[in-house]
Write a structure and sequence with these properties.
- With 248 residues, this protein is α/β, with parallel strands linked by helices.
- The protein has a single domain, classed as Metallo-dependent phosphatases (Purple Acid Phosphatase, chain A, domain 2, 4-Layer Sandwich).
- The radius of gyration is 18 Å and the shape is globular.
- The two termini are 32 Å apart.
- The structure holds fe (ii) ion.
- Fe (ii) ion binds next to loops.
Length: 248
Amino acid sequence: MKPSAKGLQSIALMGRFRYIACIRVGMKVLCIADHVDPFIYSASVKSRFSDVSFILSAGDLALEYYDFIVSTLNKPLYFVFGNHHILERESYLRRQDPFTQIARKQVGPTYTGGTFLEGRVLSERGLILAGLGGSIWYNGGENQYTNFSMFFSMIPLFPKLVWNRIFRGRYLDILLTHSPPYGINDLPDPCHTGFKVFLWFMRVFKPKYLIHGHVHLYDRNAVREVQYRRTRIVNAFDHIVIELENQK
Ligand SMILES: [Fe+2]
């Protein structure tokens, strides 16, 4: 039986209400990427970051670093892989490449205490998170994608994003990536060029945040945050704490 137009409208309104109820203004999220930060890899990390709700890693970090953070802060951590520190990545994939599996049979999964977010849509504290790891293709290495192949990596996310739009009032809140979008926080060299397909994703699915790494920031005055339409794009190099705003 087809639902009536009035019924669909009610469902949409319920989703909108849930959205407003779930986003907590002032929730802090610790974002990390690319570099082991002495401010975090320290005995005082618990006193510095005890008020964060959870941690997001945009990749290129050793899994043992996540283990330290989760063990010390005792908060949930979500991560994607970048183009470095990817030896254990395959053990996290649902469909594994049988050839590299044979070559790497000695490499088992490393305990991180974190949750692998690549190709997944998950909820944490009422926020909808999705993850897309890897960088632009530049030398044929692992976890490198063309814009076309990155689009294919996005496809498994679509059904759950649409489900969220219908029943929760929005597609997602945070997209966690390793690479930045094309032309925003990226660099012109072949390795650090961003993905054009991320621009398309932001236009269509309107995440409130896109958290990325990959581009190292050595200048304290370097731009970390850029607004693109309805999405705040943040470079998480070293670490940054974002405070989520209600952007209904
Ligand atoms: Fe990278």
